[in-house]
Amino acid sequence: MAEKIVIALGGNAILQPKQEATYENQYENVRISTEIISKIVKNGHTVIVTHGNGPQVGNILRQNEEAKDVVPPFPLDVCSAESQGFIGYMMEQTLKNELTKLGLNREVVSLLTQTEVDPNDVAFEDPSKPIGVFYSEEEAKLLAEEKGWIVKEDAGRGWRRVVASPEPKSILSSETIKRLTDDEVIVIAAGGGGIPVMREKDGRLKGVEAVIDKDRSAFRLAEESKADVLMILTDVNNVFVNYGKPDQKALGSITLEEAKIYADEGQFSAGSMGPKMEAAMKFAELGGRAIICSLGQADLAVEGKAGTQITKVQ
Ligand SMILES: Nc1ncnc2c1ncn2[C@@H]1O[C@H](COP(=O)(O)OP(=O)(O)O)[C@@H](O)[C@H]1O
Ligand SMILES: NC(=O)OP(=O)(O)O
């Protein structure tokens, strides 16, 4: 059965933590991702692709700060737009090339997308979104002192700069995205969670200095574009219970009720699997099928043969 699938690509799909952030490295990673996505399209499904931008937006912000005496720096929402632009460019180009290789002549378009947030969101008081590269605790604390950054430990992987990450209220171009997908166009949208914007009292839009979590905005995108499937791709084949312990167990097909029990037990870490499971559970609550799996098993997972699959009822 042909389905409309929102595919959210994790940060690792664009840049692995130990890789240098060169254009070439990121382009090749994106090409590998789009090679797999093109197989899903070949199997007859409609896809909307979204992606993270944590490492990239952090690096762009840093470039702005380091060059501030030569070129005036841009605010974080503009850095977010820049990262969405360059990742979208790589994705649009590689996806088109991979589809052509498979003999598919499909239109691919990358939309610079704004995401509305609430300016009074409590998240502004407690920055939590890691961006940029990883540091040792010592380096991070030194940078925090020198540059006035807020730094935090990132899910056991090292220390990173953090910025505010408000909840996405709505994806501003979701109606257009829906129309394009109804017309069989493959859309890349809301990259990096979308550019955070707020509405002034008179209704005008204004940029907000923050970075939205892409798993949360992927849920909004799936909800608003009326997708059948929300698929979150990361670097593990499945979600696990007792992750990292000798008795860890991979989750296959589970119900929303089971997922809620595991979430209440604290099985999903706040900075990594937590937001993915939160998005997946919200989507399952709406009656859709949510999948969390690795990039390499994405096409199998769509057919229900891999990954963690969450639905309201089995
Ligand atoms: N319960 C769990 N099951 C599987 N992976 C988990 C779990 N808890 C934490 N993780 C970690 O979550 C990571 C994926 O989250 P993250 O690195 O933020 O994803 P991405 O950057 O791909 O969006 C995995 O590499 C794994 O180390
Ligand atoms: N915006 C965002 O969530 O990016 P990452 O997935 O790269 O952290």
Automatic annotation (TrEMBL):
Q: Does the keyword Membrane apply?
A: no
Which stretches make up the Aspartate/glutamate/uridylate kinase domain? 4-292
Q: Does the record carry Kinase as a key word?
A: yes
- Protein name as catalogued: Carbamate kinase
Entry similarity comment = Belongs to the carbamate kinase family.
- From which domain of life does this come? Bacteria
List the catalytic activities from the record. hydrogencarbonate + NH4(+) + ATP = carbamoyl phosphate + ADP + H2O + H(+)
One MF term from GO for this chain?
A: carbamate kinase activity
Functional pathway: Metabolic intermediate metabolism; carbamoyl phosphate degradation; CO(2) and NH(3) from carbamoyl phosphate: step 1/1
Q: Which SUPFAM superfamilies match?
A: Carbamate kinase-like
* Gene name per UniProt: arcC
